[in-house]
Amino acid sequence: xxxxxxxxxxxxxxxxxxxxxxxxxxxxxxxxxxxxxxxxxxxxxxxxxxxxxxxxxxxxxxxxxx
Length: 66
Prior knowledge:
The chain has 1 helix and 2 strands; from the N terminus they run H-E-E. By secondary structure, it is mainly alpha-helical. A two-stranded antiparallel ribbon has the order 1-2.
């Protein structure tokens, strides 16, 4: 069955794999490239710390009276 497919199917399969690898390469570059510039040039890539609004130390606390 696979032997009957011919070179057209093989060429299409190679094209799909090549486009997939190119997309993976572009995604990797986008994930690790510096995004914003500083006065000293490009900022190094790093992790972003995420906090929810209820975390202690995330900002000023407001006393609710009710």
